[in-house]
Amino acid sequence: MKPRILLVEDEAALARGIRMNLDDEGYEVSIAGDGREALSMASREAFDLIILDVMLPEKDGVAVCRELRAKGARMPILFLTALNDVQDRVAGIKAGGDDYLAKPFAMEELSARIAAQLRRVNWGAAPKTGGGELVRAGAALVDFAAFRLTRGGETRDLGVKEAGLLRLLMAHPGKTLPRELILAQVWGDDIHVVPRTVDNFISALRRSIEPDPAAPRHIISVRGVGYRWED
Ligand code: CA
After folding, report:
1. What CATH number should be reported for the domain holding residue 54?
2. In terms of CB atoms within 10 Å, which of 83, 146, 157, 166 comes out highest?
3. How far is the CA of 110 from the centre of ligand 1 (A)?
4. Are 116 and 225 in the same domain?
5. Is the CB of residue 135 less than 8 Å from the CB of residue 144?
6. Strand pairing report for 134-137 and 99-102
């Protein structure tokens, strides 16, 4: 499954150029020409990453980012800023942006930043609840910041992939996530994993969080497709 990117850029020629490059690299790119359009597209479709120009008509990029985050959007957001505009960068990061790139930039640098953001999406996709907060996951409580899981008074450490997998599932309640998408998002460019790996991690997680691991109520298998989280 191709990663889907929303490119928010009002300079049409630049937007087309970026899209052409990213198409070649195997991304599926949609373009929004202003802030309002970006918000409406993001509310209708799921994107894995957003490239957001700061200077936009209708609604600027920082405001768009703040609104997306306020609505619970968790995908990485990469800002395009004016060269040396430190204020834009700080504002972007405070609004919930994950990275920024100053214009003009080399396409290679943009695609390297995108790849880096998509690799760490297992954390970027997580609910930003702040460090140390406990999240209920089935019969367990999880501290994603500390990589710890507690159940019935017993605490164990969570592996990075295991925590990333749980976070990814929990970030999309009620939605079936294909194994290939889980692999791409949690394992990224590790080419040594196979879809079966996901199944093994799922088994481990079920033992930790399901009230009855033999009859899962939270991590549901969807035959031939993947897994779904139910709260
Ligand atoms: Ca612009």
Report:
1. 3.40.50.2300
2. 166
3. 16
4. no
5. yes
6. unpaired
Distance from Cα 10 to the centre of ligand 1, integer Å: 5
Q: What is the pLDDT of residues 169-180, one digit of tens each?
A: 998 889 999 988
Could you list the residue range(s) of the whole structural domain that residue 51 is in?
4-124
Q: Which of 48, 5, 78 is nearest to 188 (CA)?
A: 48
Report the separation in Å between the CA atom of 142 and the middle of ligand 1, taken as the mean of its atom positions. 41
Ligand 1 geometric centre to CA of 53 (Å): 6
Q: Please, are residues 211 and 230 in contact by the beta-carbon 8 Å criterion?
A: no
Note the pLDDT tens digit of each residue in 43-75: 999 999 999 999 999 999 999 999 998 887 878
- Among 104, 124, 144, give the residue marking a domain's end: 124
Residue 129 lies in a domain: no
Read off the pTM: 0.55
Inform me whether the pLDDT recorded for 122 exceeds 70.
no
Distance 54 CA to ligand 1 centre (A): 6
